[in-house]
Amino acid sequence: YIELEKIDEELKNIIENYEKELKDRANKYFESKILKTEKIEDIEKNINNNIIFKVPFCMNEECAEEAKKKYGIDIRGTDINPEKASGKCIFCSREAKYYVYAGKSY
What we know:
This protein is of the alpha+beta class. Helix content is 42%, strand content 18%.
C-alpha cells in the first residue's frame, strides 16, 4: 500500500531501480561477449562463438588487413580511453601499442 501523497516519490524510485537493473543486466551480457586474450589460439578456438576479442595490437594497417584475410575478423576500435598494451601484437608479434576490439562482421 502506498499513500497517495508519496506516490510520485515511490514511482520515481521504482523507475530508477528498474533502469539500474536493466543497465546492469545489459552490461553483464555485453561483458560476457568479450574475450580478452593474448593468445591467437583463443581466437582460432572461439572465432565462431559470436564474441568480440579484446587483444593487444600494433596499430599497423597491414596487420589489420592480414588479420582479416587469415581469420576473417576486423579490427573494430578501442575503448574511449584506450588501454595501453605491453608485449607483442597478437597477429604479427610486433610491439603492441593498445588493446583493440576485433571480431567478425555479420
